[in-house]
Amino acid sequence: MPSGALRGGEVPSGAHSAALETLHDKVADRAAVRAFRPRRRIPAVIVAVLLTLLGLLLAVETLSALFGRPLRLVPYDRMLAWASSTSWSNPWFLLGSALVALLGLALLATALAPGKLKMVPVRSGHRDLIIGVRPKSVARALAHAAEQVPGVRSARATLRGGTFTVIPTTSGWRKRDEFRKDVRDAVLARLAELDPAHPYRVAVHVKERK
């Protein structure tokens, strides 16, 4: 067998290294995006305060009962009497249960939903180095790239969600579809140079001015 040939099932070491590098890059990209995600502090603080107050209340009631002087800050007797005399189909009971369930689901959804990125993570060439660029700075760079296209008098760009919206202003002396494609290509090329770790879409809306 020639020295350069591969046995069945073998994978070239170069291809294996490339696959590992690609996987590592994806892991690094996800880590970079997570690093610039805002923490869900408000829901966490609300839940922590509620649990702390509940724990303190239970501790105080338990200790006071053990010393023979129950404080009864919570009217347990009245609550027990109401619960024993109230059916599951009671409208007030159903309403209270629904409100508590909705509050819990809202806090859970808020905690699980990804926050809005306050910085645009870009690749630095080193996996352990994370760089964040302000969205306004990236938008200005994309707008400047659009202004380099022949026929563009001015341009502005904004970031909303995962989409950069570029609005070039032109006098309308070129075909709209061709003009939009040229602007989009220029913006995508500039975005590729910035090399963001998170994929962004580009939308171009042409504005004509006579």
Automatic annotation (TrEMBL):
User: Where does the source fall among the domains of life?
Assistant: Bacteria
Regions crossing the membrane: 44-67, 92-113
Pinpoint the DUF6286 domain residues.
102-207
Q: Which InterPro entries does the annotation name?
A: DUF6286 (IPR046253)
**Keyword terms of this UniProt record:** Membrane, Transmembrane, Transmembrane helix
Write down what this protein is called.
DUF6286 domain-containing protein
Q: Which organism is it from?
A: Nonomuraea terrae
